[in-house]
């Protein structure tokens, strides 16, 4: 299997699209009411900080996956636990979006196939 590498722009685009997709499903500022802009601004700052953290780790450990450099940073056992705990998180956050996208694609194909 060929190892694929992504660029910084691709990493940023993936994180941006994930956050944008999540923002459409989960309304962050509902309880903030008129201060919703502040909740969005704080979320933006957190997202930018997270991006730069991922980018720094990506540059330093460009030849390792996330689970590989967590083992390198935190040690064999704690890094393995962190990597293992990241898998269900990724699965639970990506699965609903994958299901919605799949249903939209199936209906789109079905509607265009049976158009009169």
From TrEMBL:
Q: What is its main location?
A: membrane
Tell me where on the tree of life, at the top rank, the source sits. Answer: Bacteria
The cellular location(s) given in this protein's UniProt record come to:
Membrane
Provenance organism: Ectobacillus funiculus
Record keywords: Transmembrane helix included?
A: yes
A single Pfam family, by name?
Spore_permease
- The entry's keywords: Germination, Membrane, Transmembrane, Transmembrane helix, Transport
Its protein name is: GerAB/ArcD/ProY family transporter
UniProt family annotation? Belongs to the amino acid-polyamine-organocation (APC) superfamily. Spore germination protein (SGP) (TC 2.A.3.9) family.
Q: How does it sit in the membrane?
A: Multi-pass membrane protein
Which sequence ranges are marked TM in the entry?
A: 12-30, 36-57
